[in-house]
Amino acid sequence: MERIEALNRALFLKINAGLGSAPWMIDGAVVIANDLIYLIPVLLIAMWLRGNEAKRRLAIQTCLTAMLGLGLNQVISSVWQHPRPFAMGLGHAWAQHVADSSFPSDHMTIFTAIGISLLLGRERLLGSLTLAAGSGVAWARIFLGLHFPLDMLGAVGVACLSYAALSPLWRHTGDRVTRFVERLYQSFMAWPIAQGWMRR
């Protein structure tokens, strides 16, 4: 374990931005690290509003997979606290963050859970783009000194576990859950649907 932690820290120091880093790289990394996550709800809402029943079913599945992953992260971080690099005085921190447990990364868990769900749900382009964006976020959060490389690797593992755990249940309940959510949506959005502003 000590050798793994030593490797983890060494890789972090190679990626982490130093004092001589260009300001435009820091600013760009901050945008990638903090703002790309907002594309996820936009993507899922677009799939729901513009998609057929199959796409809506997949949108719900991907959302639930990510939520399960985040729940697993909470369990892991409550059982095993791993400090963030700046809390250990390691490297340089270029963005503010609370000094909670760094392992696993919530951001990377979300991107990976959504990406693999889309890929395996035959939305290959969207899945690939989501995973590519997640890779950028992973780099940016290490570059800014907020995470270690193993935080990202752990997040990938959690996301894969979340997908594997949810998939068997979803095969049996996915259609019923989708119809239930559609009824809720049609009830709450009855007026804009009737006006033709939103798809039924």
Rg estimate, integer Å: 19 Å
Count of individual helical segments: 8
Percentage beta strand? under 5%
Cα shape: elongated
CATH class: Mainly Alpha
Query: How many strands?
Result: 0
Biggest beta-sheet profile:
none
Which fold does the CATH topology refer to? Vanadium-containing Chloroperoxidase, domain 1
CATH superfamily: Phosphatidic acid phosphatase type 2/haloperoxidase
SSE pattern, N- to C-terminal: HHHHHHHH
Fraction in helix: over 70%
Distance between the termini: 54 Å
CATH architecture classification name: Up-down Bundle
Uncertain regions: pLDDT < 50 for 5+ in a row? none
Count of folded domains: 1
Kindly state the mean pLDDT as a whole number?
A: 92
Derived structural class:
mainly alpha
In words, what does this structure look like?
This protein has eight helices and no strands. With 200 residues, it is mainly α. The protein has a single domain, classed as Vanadium-containing Chloroperoxidase, domain 1, CATH 1.20.144. It is elongated and about 55 Å long. The mean pLDDT is 92.
Layout: helices, strands, pairs:
Elements (H helix, E strand, L loop, with lengths): L1 H14 L7 H13 L3 H12 L2 H27 L26 H15 L3 H20 L5 H40 L1 H5 L6
Helix pairs in contact: 2-6, 3-4, 4-5, 4-7, 5-6, 5-7
TL;DR?
By secondary structure, the chain is mainly alpha-helical.
Identify the notable features of this structure and list them briefly.
mainly alpha, Vanadium-containing Chloroperoxidase, domain 1, 200 residues
